[in-house]
Amino acid sequence: MFLNKNQASSLAIFCKVVDNFGDIGICWRLARQLQQEHGIAVTLWVDDLRSFQRICPDVMSNVEVQQLAGVTVRHWRNQEGIFSASDIADIVIEFFACDIPPGYIAAMVECNPRPVWLNLEGLSAEEWVEGCHTLSSPQSRLPLTKYFFFPGFTNKTGGLLHESSLEEQRQQFQSNQAAITAFFAQFGVTPAEMSSLKVSLFCYPQAPVVALFEQWQSGDTSITCLVPEGVAVDTIQAFLGAEAKAGAARTRGALTVRVLPFVAQPDYDKLLWACDLNFVRGEDSFVRAQWADKPFIWHIYPQDENLHHKKLSAFLQRYSGGIESLTAFSLCWNGAGTESMEEQVNWAALWPSFQADMPKIACRSAEWKWQVLVNGDLTSNLLKFARASRQ
Ligand code: TRH
Prior knowledge:
binds 2'-deoxy-thymidine-beta-L-rhamnose, 40% helix, 6-stranded mixed beta sheet, Rossmann fold, 15 helices
């Protein structure tokens, strides 16, 4: 339990993997930072150990309780289970409004003092987030209050996940050409490809990869596109004329496509640092691209009725710095750049203007990073809030 008002010693994160890797990706990053930088005893409850294993190969998918990087990882099997007050952490985080087990909540009521209960929400640049960040939600039938905690880009939000040593690690890596060459070489990137424009591609199946590949193939810039296994599979297979498994590669015209294994999370950071341009998606890779000092294009998680287009525009308004090619390319990549479904995107004009602006976009990206980091990092902000909210 809390030793005093300013100290919390334990924290539990409940993570339900809705789909893909972002849910566990974010929770795992948060758990490690809480433990390593703030000395908190963290228990991470996660319902899908196999997805977790893809981003962290040390995870054993058939083990109920395991210690990883100082974090206790527990397989969250179901909503059952009887808990006592001594099982309850000082701070309880439910990620993305996942319902935590009723038995756990019942034991929270028994605690004295009661734990701080937070719902960690998804990231959006929309303005309404500022009004909802840290709102309290008193539980009608329980003597407990839940607080909403929103990540975000402004000082009226919780900020973004960013480890204290990340900037130094990135700078070290990016200034070490031998390390970059060795990093690429493990994926079969040849010395000749090292002088090409290196692009990482992580997107949802809806992305217009075929159209962009056609443009890249027929252009006069050599491009090496590195695609993690499982991404844009149909398009990659059609390009390769073979199965899109790790190690597969083919060159057509100016474009070489290489399929990479799905790498562990720290290596994915290195991939973003090493490439000249990154296509990212969802939430976590999107945030990591913002720390890479490289131009990036975001493929936002699609929602019904194109709700995601609003979120995308809100982000671009804050981020684009008036660079028109960046906005136009981003909108078209997300199917939001044309007036009607029938209207064709002119990739032959879009790509060259984006490419010409890439140095400008890289500068804007670095400027943006500091603009956002002034608000502090999400983990520290969250702990500060939890400590202040202790009843
Ligand atoms: O995988 P995502 O699409 O995840 C999510 C989920 O769909 C989630 O339900 C939704 O809420 C959210 O998007 C918006 O994209 P994301 O968020 O970028 O997460 C990918 C994670 O996988 C991230 O932590 C980086 C990691 N990763 C690796 O560790 N190795 C790799 O090779 C790659 C490509 C990614």
